[in-house]
Amino acid sequence: MTGRPVIGEQVLCRRVPEGAFERYSARPVRTLEDYQKMAAIRAAVFMSEQDCPYEEEFDGNDLCATHFLVFDGTQAVGTLRMRWFAGFAKLERVVLLRSQRGRPALQVMLAEAFELAARKGYTRMIAQIQARLWPVWSRTFKCRMVPGRPRFWFSDYEYIEIEIVVPHHPQALSADEDPMVMIRPEGLWDRPGVLDASAGRSGQGDVAA
């Protein structure tokens, strides 16, 4: 993604402070190194601070999800996870290192993540949040408790389900997109990628998907 995440920022309750996008940056996890940073942050917070067992924190969904990292300069300081379903996306595992809580890192990461979801064509997201954190999340991004849904427990915490409405993105991707756009790295659809550079080579010979 390029530029300020205009659509993603509209989901937040407050505009990201001036200068925050210069200090902080967020991007999808695309490399093994970034994946390891994500896992280290989650282990430091969920396993160490909240005493969550390893097999409950790393629950079998990580290799089929999109992860985000937020950086303070070059240091990864937070992460979140998104999973994709027909008609909605699910926001999960939102976490910051203790030193970053209360700072704009969270807003930057969420704005970029919501922007990605909007570009992928999603207008509805759900999240399962610790019930005790409803006052925090309801002041962070525009959401509502899903009516009629029961509270439930897992990993020693009470949870509620919330719904997040994401504005339609004017550049939402579709099945009719330029094929070269669709094969670019996740979130970098507006930049020519390595496969764009390969297009100039001869088209002769066998073709494989």
UniProtKB/TrEMBL annotation:
<dbReference type="InterPro" id="IPR016181">
    <property type="entry name" value="Acyl_CoA_acyltransferase"/>
</dbReference>
<dbReference type="GO" id="GO:0016747">
    <property type="term" value="F:acyltransferase activity, transferring groups other than amino-acyl groups"/>
</dbReference>
<dbReference type="InterPro" id="IPR000182">
    <property type="entry name" value="GNAT_dom"/>
</dbReference>
<feature type="domain" description="N-acetyltransferase">
    <location>
        <begin position="24"/>
        <end position="163"/>
    </location>
</feature>
<protein>
    <recommendedName>
        <fullName>N-acetyltransferase domain-containing protein</fullName>
    </recommendedName>
</protein>
